């Protein structure tokens, strides 16, 4: 009986963790460039030498859904949408390099180019990208940034740098607690992606299916209730069995 209770208990725990993943996805249904997190449950035999008799229902992180989100035209020159398997490089809070597809860019008062989450974009050399005073800005499809200096005419437009955009397959990326992706094999750094890497004036929406996430949350809630009932019934059966043993004695 204790084995059944153990399996039901670990299953309920895994269901709660899956519910957290589903709610996190739903909360980011409107976040630009967000990739839905994937989760699953697997059976894991708990080590115990020659008595490994417990099976744990374990929640596992299966990465993220790499499908490209819907494209939304904004006309904003600071909005960019990345091509498939292309990622904007940013400076993470720990000073390292991380990656995102959130193309809703903005300028800080000191001219630094940042993502909607406030993470500084970096150039080809890995340095934070800052712009001098200007009256017009253009981001090319290859990631080059051009400006018309303040008080100058259109003919003075000049390229001041290129954004670092890398080509990375989904299986080489893992999402951190800060929502940014990181290279799972840092000893093999990503190379600058060639050619057209982005479209400007458009944004990639989240690829979360909001209706599907709601249905999943309902299913997980019912599954959790069933597992709790199984634990309760197992406890009642154990108490009944103990009562019979006492009467038999």
UniProtKB/TrEMBL annotation:
GO cellular component assignments: bacterial-type flagellum basal body, rod
Domain Flagellar hook protein FlgE/F/G-like D1 stretches: 87-146
Chief place of localization: other
InterPro entries noted in UniProt: Flag_bb_rod_N (IPR001444), Flagellar_FlgE/F/G (IPR020013), Flg_bb/hook_C_dom (IPR010930), FlgE/F/G-like (IPR037925), LlgE_F_G-like_D1 (IPR053967)
Keyword Flavoprotein: no
Gene Ontology biological-process entries: bacterial-type flagellum-dependent swarming motility
Domain Flagellar basal body rod protein N-terminal: 5-35
Subcellular location(s) of the protein: Bacterial flagellum basal body
Annotated ranges, domain Flagellar basal-body/hook protein C-terminal: 200-244
Domain of life, per lineage: Bacteria
Record-linked Pfam families: Flg_bb_rod, Flg_bbr_C, LlgE_F_G_D1
Keyword Isomerase recorded: no
Coiled-coil region: none
Keyword list, A-Z: Bacterial flagellum, Cell projection, Cilium, Flagellum
Subunit structure and binding partners: The basal body constitutes a major portion of the flagellar organelle and consists of five rings (E,L,P,S, and M) mounted on a central rod. The rod consists of about 26 subunits of FlgG in the distal portion, and FlgB, FlgC and FlgF are thought to build up the proximal portion of the rod with about 6 subunits each.
PANTHER family (UniProt xref): FLAGELLAR BASAL-BODY ROD PROTEIN FLGF (PTHR30435:SF18), FLAGELLAR PROTEIN (PTHR30435)
Family: Belongs to the flagella basal body rod proteins family.
UniProt protein name: Flagellar basal-body rod protein FlgF
Species annotation: Luteimonas chenhongjianii
Taxonomic lineage of the native organism: Bacteria, Pseudomonadati, Pseudomonadota, Gammaproteobacteria, Lysobacterales
């Amino acid at each position: 009986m204790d084995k059944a209770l153990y399996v039901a208990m670990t299953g309920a725990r895994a269901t709660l963790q899956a519910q957290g993943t589903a709610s996190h996805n739903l909360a980011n249904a409107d976040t630009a460039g967000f990739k839905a997190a994937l989760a699953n449950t697997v059976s894991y035999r708990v080590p115990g030498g020659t008595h490994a008799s417990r099976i744990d229902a374990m929640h596992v992180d299966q990465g993220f859904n790499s499908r490209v989100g819907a494209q939304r035209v904004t006309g904003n020159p600071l909005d960019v949408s990345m091509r498939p398997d292309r990622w904007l490089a940013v400076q993470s809070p720990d000073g390292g390099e991380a990656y995102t597809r959130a193309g809703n860019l903005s300028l800080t008062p000191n001219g630094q180019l940042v993502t909607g989450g406030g993470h500084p974009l970096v150039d080809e050399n890995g340095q934070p990208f800052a712009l001098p005073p200007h009256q017009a800005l253009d981001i090319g499809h290859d990631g080059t940034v051009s400006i018309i200096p303040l008080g100058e005419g259109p003919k003075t437009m000049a390229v001041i740098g290129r954004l670092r955009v890398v080509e990375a397959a989904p299986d080489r990326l893992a999402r951190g607690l800060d929502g940014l992706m990181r290279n799972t094999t840092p000893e093999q750094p990503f190379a600058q992606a060639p050619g057209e890497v982005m479209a400007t004036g458009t944004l990639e929406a989240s690829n979360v299916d909001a209706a599907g996430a709601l249905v999943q949350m309902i299913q997980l809630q019912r599954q959790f209730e069933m597992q709790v009932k199984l634990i309760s019934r197992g406890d009642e059966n154990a108490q009944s069995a103990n009562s019979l043993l006492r009467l038999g004695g």
